[in-house]
Prior knowledge:
6-stranded antiparallel β-sheet, single chain
Amino acid sequence: MLNVPSQSFPGPSSQQRVASGGRSKVPLKQGRSLMDWIRLTKSGKDLTGLKGRLIEVTEEELKKHNKKDDCWICIRGFVYNVSPYMEYHPGGEDELMRAAGSDGTDLFDQVHRWVNYESMLKECLVGRMAMKPALPKDYHEEKKVLNGMLPQSQVTDTLAKEGPSSPSYDWFQTDSLVTIVIYTKQKDINLDSVIVDHRDDSFRAETVIKDYSYLVHVALSHEIQEDFSGLFYRKCQLVSKEDMTHDTKLFCLMLPPSTHLQVPVGQHVYLKLPITGTEIVKPYTPVSDSLFSEFKEPVLPNNIYIYFLIKIYPAGFFTPELDQLQIGDYVSVSNPEGNFIISQLQELEDLFLLAAGTGFTPMVKVLNYALTNIPSLRKVKLMFFNKTEDDIIWRSQLEKLAFKDKRFEVEFVLSAPTSEWSGKQGYISPALLSEFLRRSSDTSKVLICLCGPTPFTEQGMKMLHDLNFSKDEIHSFTA
């Protein structure tokens, strides 16, 4: 296994690093869009410089290719010539150069683990690394696999040496049923801590304990070959889509019959679609089907459906394709990801939500959970920024919720209102925030959640720090 460079990625001075923890894109030259890159990969042009040959690459050979016009990078044992891709990379050339001539797996995982690089860079494949990484001894055990993995923020090829001990499991079989029991030795394991998929001849169960993810993968008739380091996807069927505003729709996807997946509060998943022969992936936060649905808690939550509020951009690349899907078509949905910790809401007294546009989506479940499950809560306030009244998602539901629950208040702020608008107008500003963010008492426990376009989030984070809120009192949703 190659040594991974120790520097952070993106670098401290990079355009890709922002205060909110998100990632800024670098402006691309004309003719260097994603669609332009896909056209180039399908043009038949030799993008590897090897005239179609695949070679075995030694560590010494890889190190030689460390310049912009001759840049090879290794990701999970495969080597790519990324020089042709330099001008098409949204993060800029400097970000790719940080992994030039080396194994960039860890660096890649830190920034865009969700990107389907195999599809994007398949015409740039040089070959395999000569030295394959050693697998743990218990990686294969005849027809079953038990694999304890490092925290998702530090995915490597070795087992975790610290943290909770790996769960053990056992199974019992009758003529018609196989029961698998996982012994976590942990209290208070919730349904959203377990993801289960039964597909074809394999059973896969992932258990999230504290900051660690443990995977049990059992082959029911033959041995399973799979890369455990990437995101796992399952195909979900589109069962409905409904207009919410003039450009925002509520999509309802149905999970496969043998899948259990509950997306935790504050986390997102990735949707994957094949577009012009390339698999394109985008992050989205699931919502409830309405602001009121989760107040009626069933004994067993209905986890058959996943809902998404998605804005359709007519000139976009992904959302028009998503909008073209017909009822019954399929979309691939990943496992959940995200760094929101639900314990931040415990003993909370004041919850402030700052959302712009579809940045409202992560607020839906946070809002529902807080009002339903946090007895210490005194006040929840949402400041919702939009361009016009027609852009406000679920306006009537928000107003009804404010009428129903006196702890909840909502303020709408418009940047391009009509002359009839009597509410607040403008953009996020210190003046608006200082008036809005008033604690119920001087010592109340406060959390401020922030989500919207990158400039909104960056400006909001700076203003909140200037207003002397600590980093423990602020959470920005980014993906």
